[in-house]
């Protein structure tokens, strides 16, 4: 049935989501995020590489988490849950808080004391979540959430909840739909490792289904979307998972106990979707790599100043890796590359202001001073 306007990813992709037909959909019209082609990145331009940013920071709470949360909270409500719980480096807590508010249920969020970005904390507080700060990191919070869910009536909405990954796989559908095929490489920041796993599920399903069911699932297009008449979306991308150097268990090859990085969103040492992420990278022929905080922040700045895209530090990790792999030739000239830009820059204003090189001028409120300021800086 043709809908008058976009109503969220469950309505759009219901055919490929494991939800009951009569469920009450808890949605904030998430998904349908822009795929922005970079114009001003020299590493791509010089090599005839098409570089796209899937800007997930434009979801309703400012991160990709909303894709998983709409499905997880819809299912929780269907099961009769009155409360959800998560551990979080920030974005999951913001998303859980918003969707719980929408559903009219309670959200409990465990966050590492003093280690989440200000915007995310503001969101969780404003949406009315019960915020429990722990003297520990995300991995401690994750362990406690799993333990307490055995003893209290709460539904876990971290990405160990399979409905989260089902929702997040829809980003791969949108990308394939926009490009008419899968990209050659998909670059993504890796923390708890749910998102890379979910994307691989999406691409694998698409390739296996010959692209046909996207048309069927695409309830709002009346069967006239990109895929109509196409017999196959056969290609799958190489999945490239990038981490921050101080929080890079996949590079080490084992869990780490004291992760640290300026990219607090991915300050995770014990990723829960370890096996799924390893399989995604291996099956796709991709790889993991890690980059320093300085490199990540430089990319954050580059995207903001050269492309007008403001993302949070963790999100810049995907592009940091892509640029590196273009330079060393791991990503071949002429390729199509999609980088997931996971969260909005406004999430973490402290880092943005701290690292901004722009000197702020303070001048007298008179024409001459303004004129001088312009002429000296033009
Ligand atoms: C901006 O919010 O884990 O590898 O608790 O917020 O699927 O974990 C956040 C993760 C990348 C990593 N970019 O994704 C949380 C949380 C941003 C993020 C990731 C996160 P996963």
Assign an overall shape: globular
Separate helix tally: 16
Spatial order of strands in the largest sheet: 1-2-10-7-8-9
**Largest pleated sheet:** 6 strands, mixed
* Rg on CA atoms, Å: 21 Å
Strand content: 5-15%
Overall pLDDT metric: 93
Q: Please state the structural category.
A: alpha/beta
In terms of per-residue confidence, which ranges show pLDDT below 50 for 5 or more consecutive residues? 215-220
Order of helices and strands: HEHEHEHEHEHEHHEHHEHHEHHEHH
Q: How many beta strands in the DSSP annotation?
A: 10
Intertermini distance: 54 Å
Which small-molecule species are bound to the chains here? ligand AN7
How would you characterize the overall build of this protein?
With 378 residues, this protein is of the alpha/beta class. It has 16 helices and ten strands. It has helices at 9-13, 42-45, 65-78, 91-103, 118-126, 138-148, 162-168, 170-179, 194-208, 212-217, 249-252, 274-284, 293-307, 313-327, 349-355, 367-377, and strands spanning 35-37, 50-55, 83-87, 106-112, 130-134, 155-156, 185-189, 238-244, 287-291, 336-341. Strand 3 (83-87), helix 4 (91-103) and strand 4 (106-112) form a beta-alpha-beta unit. Helix 3 packs parallel to helix 4 (91-103) and helix 3 packs across helix 7 (162-168). It is globular. The chain binds ligand AN7. The site of ligand AN7 has 21 residues, from helix 4, helix 9 and helix 14.
């Amino acid at each position: 049935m043709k809908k008058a306007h976009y109503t969220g990813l469950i309505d759009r992709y219901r055919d490929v989501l494991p939800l009951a037909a009569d469920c009450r959909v808890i949605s904030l019209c998430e998904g349908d995020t822009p795929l922005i082609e970079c114009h001003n990145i020299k590493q791509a331009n010089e090599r005839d590489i098409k570089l796209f940013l899937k800007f997930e920071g434009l979801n309703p709470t400012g991160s990709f988490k909303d894709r998983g949360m709409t499905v997880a909270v819809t299912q929780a409500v269907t099961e009769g849950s009155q409360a959800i719980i998560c551990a979080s480096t920030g974005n999951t807590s913001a998303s859980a808080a918003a969707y719980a508010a929408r559903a009219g249920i309670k959200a409990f969020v465990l966050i590492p004391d003093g280690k989440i970005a200000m915007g995310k904390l503001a969101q969780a507080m404003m949406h009315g979540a019960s915020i429990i700060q722990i003297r520990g990191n995300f991995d401690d919070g994750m362990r406690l959430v799993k333990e307490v869910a055995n003893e209290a009536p709460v539904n876990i909405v971290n990405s160990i909840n399979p409905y989260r990954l089902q929702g997040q796989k829809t980003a791969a559908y949108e990308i394939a739909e926009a490009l008419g095929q899968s990209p050659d490489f998909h670059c993504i920041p890796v923390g708890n490792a749910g998102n890379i796993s979910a994307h691989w599920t999406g691409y694998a399903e698409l390739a296996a289904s010959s692209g046909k069911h996207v048309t069927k699932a695409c309830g709002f297009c009346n069967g006239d979307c990109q895929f109509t008449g196409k017999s196959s979306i056969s290609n799958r991308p190489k999945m490239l998972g990038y981490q921050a150097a101080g929080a890079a268990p996949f590079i080490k090859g084992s869990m780490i106990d004291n992760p640290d990085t300026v990219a607090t969103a991915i300050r995770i040492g014990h990723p829960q979707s370890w096996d799924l992420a390893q399989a995604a990278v291996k099956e796709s022929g991709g790889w993991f790599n890690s980059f320093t905080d300085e490199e990540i922040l430089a990319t954050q700045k580059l995207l903001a100043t050269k492309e007008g895209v403001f993302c949070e530090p963790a999100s810049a990790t995907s592009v940091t890796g892509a640029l590196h792999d273009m330079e060393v030739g791991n990503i071949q000239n002429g390729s199509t590359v999609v980088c997931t830009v996971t969260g909005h820059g406004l999430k973490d204003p402290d880092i943005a202001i701290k690292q901004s090189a722009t000197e702020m001028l303070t001048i007298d409120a008179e024409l001459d001073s303004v004129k001088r300021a312009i002429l000296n800086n033009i």
